[in-house]
Write a structure and sequence with these properties.
The protein has one domain. It has two helices and two strands. The protein has helices at about 25-45, 50-55, and strands at about 5-10, 15-20. Strands 1-2 form a two-stranded antiparallel ribbon. The radius of gyration is 22 Å and the shape is rod-shaped.
Amino acid sequence: MSTLHPQYVTDEDGNRVSVLLPLDEFEALLEDLEDLRDALQVRDQPTVPWESVKAELGLK
């Protein structure tokens, strides 16, 4: 992800209450979030040793 270009919406006291992002940056963040979710889901799945895969495929 490249640098974000947020614009903040503040209340009357100057406290940030919302943020505006260009749509392409927002969509890129959503894609990153989806990729992270997918990675976390497969992280805990059991793995198959490479030697087993090679044997199953008839590779040396």
